[in-house]
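Continuing the batch. This is chain 6 of the set; chains 1 through 5 are on the previous pages. Same settings as before, nothing changed between runs. Recording input and output for traceability.
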Amino acid sequence: MENGHLTQNTEKRLMIVSGQGYPELAERIADRLDMDLSGVELVKFPGGELYARYLESVRGADVFIIQSLCEPVNENLMQLLIMIDAAKRASAKRIVAVIPWYAYSRQDRKTKPREPITARLVANMIQAAGAERVMTMDLHTGQIEGYFTFPVDHLTAMHTFVDYFVEQGFKDADDAVVVAPDTGEVKVAKQLAGHLRLPWAIVNKMREGPDRSEVTHVIGDVAGKRVVMIDDIIATGGTLVNAAERLEKEGATEVWAAATHGEFSGDAYRKIEDSLIKEVVVTDTLPLKSDQPRSKIKTLTIAPILASTIKNVFTDESVSEVFMGENQLF
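Output for chain 6:
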């Protein structure tokens, strides 16, 4: 109140909060932004129900909720929905769900009768809860963006991988090649090959069931070369290990692998440890299990990418500029 008249504070306010899915990543993002995570009380009751309450006012704030949908997937998803609803009911100005790993992304279409499209269902739930924007990394298929009716910031770890493999001496190397582990990753492999100025090849496989496939042949020349396989997700590791064995039979001297999301389900850690793969490079969209063998796994952080994107969204600047216009891989 000033001279008997109401005045309005138009200064924007940014708040970063974390669910329990991967709080370490949220801390890294907050550190890059030179901020503290805002307090939130998260409780799991003995009966399994979840509860969330913000410990400070979110009224009028742009609230970015960071929650990677890692194990336990369904619990972390439900917690995200509850946190969105709590922020909405507390009058947050804008709610952005930051989901580095979008679970259920492989269930993006029907392949058999009477199947669900669960990736779409998850999108519907996030919208219904009250989010107004989603930020995510390297979706399994780009069509998932279209499941939302509001803006989706589809980010990529491509430049993170490029920088790393340049450091490892792959750029312009005469003895190196980039390989797509299946035809679905050809565009990504071609883009990585373009940045490293390398040729590319394809491993052709036949899928026998969920997480089961057989490598049939290699399209392209890998003999006498160091190979970099690029994928979006490493699940059980079976496809990766089988492809590496076939590439060695075709004459590859070394096999490296890279993927944005290291899910490493089942006995994936042991498979990779016992394989002929030299190194597996993943990002920290998902936490690694500390009780598993990880000597061949290298983790790169995507916290700088997420922090820069959060900053640009908050200040209404271009997100594409963060990636020099190359954040659309599909």
